[in-house]
Recover the amino acids of this structure.
């Protein structure tokens, strides 16, 4: 949707005789201004349960801020011959067309959920009281929300078991769990939170006066029922995801064209001179939503069938001479820019682990699976904070997970740029665990 809006903005510039000094500067200004305002205004973060009045308020704020920034351009860049009437017509055009498109997309998506059952999420409710019954009624009547109610579990039932609820979630591939805080004990809530995070399920609270965990909570309304979401992951916002993906494509394309185009043939010669086998080493890793993908690396070890299952340790005999150099300088990771370009990885994110190791680490570090809520990265906050390489003790993976979770909750493009700069700095300084 953001691309359509930007197209509307740019196309409108040529519809009216605004008489600008430099049209290209104006177009660049308009695009940047719209993106910044959208990020600040969360213009594209419209929840499925949003009401029309909320959408209208969002549109008004967006347009008013855009008008202010637009007229500021005329004063700052001194446009002596600008057509005031044409500029006003451009503002009206942008307002009307963006409004129409926003509402059209909003209503079409609602109809899509009702008529074709698309864009749906399966949900269950734990608890039996006035609020949970009212919420279930909303699920069953507000079909345009796309929230498919599957089951209710009453805590007061003699045979109630939280474990049975969790088994039902897994067996029926439930997406979201809603529960009444008033009806569960603190231990049960803790178990439910841990289950949701380790199994990549969305957990939402129906609040009361109990003390809720000190986590990032998002407050929202389903009709007139207040709902709390456990965590708002920054990269689940469509605009943030678009910005990060755009940056990944540009950055990886430049590396592929300017570096890998000559580095790969050179590495192929050096690697094959020392040992027989392929230049690239493909290893299965867990990525976004715990899906497996093949991670690309320059081969740094002699060909061995067991290389895919065993993590490299210090003074590992499998590592070749050229392998020691490229691992020390992290050159072996460079082909992962192809993974970034193909959309399997990001430049910055939690480092992906071997499939066999993920199963081990999941038992050692609580909330480990939450790392898979975003794409894995070539480098990450944990790596530049001293937690890269071999896991020698349980505290290593526990601390790595803490940094990864902080990253996905507090992502920004500036944070990514800072991590990239720190990664390059560490390469020149040298790192103890780079082996």
């Amino acid at each position: 949707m953001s691309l359509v809006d930007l197209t509307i903005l740019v196309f409108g510039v040529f519809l009216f005789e605004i008489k600008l000094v430099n049209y290209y500067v104006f177009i660049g200004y308009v695009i940047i201004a719209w993106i910044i305002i959208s990020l600040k205004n969360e213009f594209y973060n419209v929840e499925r349960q949003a009401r029309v009045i909320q959408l209208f308020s969002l549109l008004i704020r967006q347009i008013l801020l855009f008008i202010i920034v637009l007229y500021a351009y005329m004063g700052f860049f001194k446009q002596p011959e600008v057509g005031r009437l044409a500029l006003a017509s451009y503002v009206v055009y942008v307002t009307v067309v963006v409004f129409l498109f926003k509402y059209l997309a909003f209503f079409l998506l609602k109809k899509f959920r009702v008529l074709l059952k698309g864009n749906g999420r399966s949900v269950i409710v734990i608890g039996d009281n006035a609020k949970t019954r009212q919420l279930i009624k909303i699920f069953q009547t507000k079909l345009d929300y796309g929230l498919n109610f599957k089951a209710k579990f009453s805590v007061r039932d003699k045979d109630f078991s939280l474990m049975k609820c969790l088994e039902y979630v897994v067996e029926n591939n439930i997406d979201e769990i809603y529960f009444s805080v008033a009806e569960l004990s603190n231990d049960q809530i803790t178990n439910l939170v841990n289950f949701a995070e380790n199994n990549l399920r969305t957990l939402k609270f129906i609040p009361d006066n109990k003390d809720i965990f000190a986590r990032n909570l998002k407050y929202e309304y389903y009709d007139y029922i207040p709902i709390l979401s456990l965590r708002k992951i920054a990269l689940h916002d469509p605009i943030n995801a678009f910005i990060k993906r755009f940056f990944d494509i540009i950055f990886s394309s430049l590396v592929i064209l300017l570096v890998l185009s000559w580095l790969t043939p050179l590495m192929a010669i050096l690697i094959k001179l020392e040992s027989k086998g392929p230049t690239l080493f493909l290893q299965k890793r867990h990525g976004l939503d715990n899906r497996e993908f093949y991670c690309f690396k320059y081969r740094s070890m002699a060909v061995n069938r067991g290389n895919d299952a065993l993590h490299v340790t210090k003074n590992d005999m499998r590592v070749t001479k050229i392998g020691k150099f490229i691992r020390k300088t992290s050159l072996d990771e460079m082909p992962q820019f192809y993974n970034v370009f193909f959309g399997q990885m990001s430049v910055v994110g939690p480092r992906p682990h071997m499939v066999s190791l993920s199963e081990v680490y999941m038992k050692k570090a609580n909330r480990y699976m939450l790392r898979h809520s975003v794409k894995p990265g070539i480098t990450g906050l944990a790596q530049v904070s001293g937690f890269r390489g071999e896991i020698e003790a349980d505290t290593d993976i526990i601390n790595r997970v803490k940094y990864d979770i902080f990253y996905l909750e507090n992502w920004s493009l500036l944070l990514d740029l800072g991590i990239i700069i720190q990664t390059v700095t560490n390469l020149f300084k040298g790192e103890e665990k780079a082996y």
